[in-house]
Amino acid sequence: MGLDRQKLAAELLKFSDNQTLQQLSIYLYEIIPSTNQILWELLDDRNLKPPLAAIAAEQTAGRGQWGRQWQSQRGGLYLSVAINLNIPASDAPHLTLFSAWGIAEALRCHDLPVFLKWPNDLILEGRKLGGIKSETLIQQGTIAQAVIGAGINWKNPVPEVGINLQSFPAIHSLEQLAAIAIYGIFFGYQHYLSNGVEILLPSYLNLLQSIGREVTVNGSPGVVVGVNSKGELRVRLHSPGATTEIHLPSGTISLGYDDQL
After folding, report:
1. Which residue, 9, 32, 119, 176, is the most exposed by fewest CB within 10 angstroms?
2. Of 206, 229, 251, which one is at a domain's C-terminal end?
3. 21 falls in which pLDDT band (50, 70, 90)?
4. What is the mean pLDDT of the chain?
5. Same domain, yes or no, for 60 and 99?
6. 20-26: long-range contacts (C-beta < 8 A, 24 or more apart)?
7. Are 120 and 101 in the same domain?
8. Starting from the edge strand earliest in sequence, which strands make up the sheet with 220-227, in order?
9. Which residue, 167, 193, 179, 5, is CA-closest to 83?
10. What's the domain range around 10?
11. Helix (H, G, I), strand (E, B), or coil: what is residue 131?
12. Helix-helix angle 174-195:5-12, to 10 degrees
């Protein structure tokens, strides 16, 4: 079985100071292709209005970065939220920045030392705990709506580079994890709307474990020095007698994990 609606409601009540959560409609599913897909269908076919959330016990067609299939076996958390926005389409990378940061901060408040790996991974003890995938509806050059999906490992099987929360007593139920993740997305969203990316970015960088990582770009050695306000990876390249900084958008380089290097 999937989540218990009453238990989830009780966990969300712990964040009752968040006004957006008070307006949130939540849809629970057993098995669906993807929570992102189902929310777009609710928005388009049934003309429902954000904020909405969809949570599935299992996904059959979840997708992560690079279009890779996200393993969505039972025991993990698979959720998406739909929100209204009014920001330039060029600012689409900000969605991943504020969502990943917000969820990480919410988990850290529950004694889980979660960090971030650019562009969209949640990291715990050097391994992948979860990931973020955002999609947008653009009208006349402006993002009008967005669906932000998150997959977080709880008690599901994980690959070698992954980790789940089975041995971490800070999270006692999937309902609690779902409430924390939903709150984290809206916490990051409201912080971004109130303060902008320039205020959000330093907080994001404080949790970014990718800084200092050695990389190779087109045969040139370099080191990651940060992320800019466009969500691009800042890499300082080194060559004899010269140092150059380049900015790489998401999808142009994969940082990988230590086990994969």
Report:
1. 9
2. 206
3. confident
4. 91
5. yes
6. 20/51, 20/186, 20/189, 20/190, 21/182, 21/183, 21/186, 23/51, 24/51, 24/52, 24/53, 24/81, 24/182, 25/51, 25/52, 25/53, 26/52, 26/53, 26/54, 26/55
7. yes
8. 214-217, 220-227, 233-239, 242-248
9. 193
10. 5-206
11. strand
12. 40
Number of domains in the chain: 2
Task: Count the Cβ atoms, other than its own, within 10 Å of residue 174.
Answer: 25
What's the pLDDT at 138?
Answer: 96
* Segment 185-220, tens digit of pLDDT: 999 999 999 999 999 999 999 999 999 999 999 888
Burial class (CB in 10 A: 0-12, 13-18, 19+), 90: exposed
Which segments of 27-81 does DSSP mark as H helices, in order? 35-44
By mean pLDDT, which of 10-19, 29-38, 186-195 is the weakest? 10-19
Separation of first and last alpha carbons in the chain: 38
Dist. CA 49–CA 27, nearest whole Å: 13
The answer to pTM > 0.90 is yes
Asked if residue 219 and residue 143 are part of one domain, the reply reads: no
Q: Strand 52-59 relative to strand 25-32: parallel, antiparallel, unpaired?
A: parallel
Residue 127 reports pLDDT greater than 60: yes
Residue 65 has pLDDT above 80, yes or no: no
- Give alpha helix (H) positions in 121-196: 174-195
